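hey so u asked for the seq, here:
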Amino acid sequence: MISTLHIENFRNIKTCDLSLFSQFNLFYGENGAGKTSLLEAIYYLATAKSFRTESVEKIIHYETPYLLISAAWRHNQVTSMLGIQRDKNGLATIHLNQQPVKSIAAVSAELPIQFIGAESHRLLTDGPKVRRQFLDWGLFYTDPLFFSTWKQFQKILVQRNAALKARASRDELFIWNKMFSDVATLLHTHRKNYINSFLDGFYQILEKFLPHQAISFLYAPGWDENVALNVLLDAELYKELQVGHTLHGPHRADLLFSVNNFPIHDVLSQGQLKLIAYALKLAQGIHVQSVASKTPIFLIDDLPSELDSHNQKLVMEMLSTIHAQVFITGIQLDDLRVMLEIESTGRMFHVEQLDGIANIVEHAVEECFT
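ran it, structure tokens below
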């Protein structure tokens, strides 16, 4: 869990120091005050990425040349210090316990962060890439062998595509086919095993959110499993040479959801799709904690506007049960006050914008009920 947080020059947050609670941290304030920016800064600390933009310049305060985010977090009674600094040229430096870190993956592995926002339903309506990323997020935290397999697959995929574009000889391409199919099949096995271990928890949560919907879930690996991948690649080589890239493999995998054999986005409302997305993210966090013994961190933007009071209560109860650390934003104090009635332990913060700068102040929980 993150115990203290320091932010400098991140969007409209010029400087901010917060002492955080081990479970629920609630932030309220008007639109544009800086609530989502706070969640984004936490996400950036753990991933070196924004969930809103790919532009570094947009997240660094316009009057300053750099951003800085640092935090102390505790795991198994051990406190570690993490910091990331980035300038507008994109140069980033990351330190863990005052030692430079070359790869953010080493940091991310210790901070399993899930962001759930207003567009959570897009996990189900966007293209397959977002669902592959969802799968691989869970595998990254629960399967020690996954990440090396994933990196090897990405490398060989790029190399095989280059060979196809260069119209390499058939003998060379057959060698690439064998190398590609071997690592692709291994990656597929990782994903399939993960889904089998994760699925029961997902359906248990989904039953609470949508008890009267018979929702089916299918993993499509990216090729016809009835045919060995290397055989398929050899047979489809001419077609792949025509298009210049690999047509079959785990990079084409998808998760398919349906209701009575119809795609869910053709049957269910956007609100119902959001509930499925919540069920997926919550089940994944619970699974990470169960398998990897790591505390999941949930960043939930504007929960009161996204779910009705009944489902808000279900979410809060689930998060409380697994002892996740949670950051929730909302516009009205009254909306978050209801959550404190569900889960009485937590910290409340008011976020307001003063002369274009976010000001974040902790409120005693007792004050929220006076």
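Residues 84 and 94 are 4 Å apart (CA to CA). DSSP finds 14 helices and 15 strands in the chain.
lmk if thats what u needed
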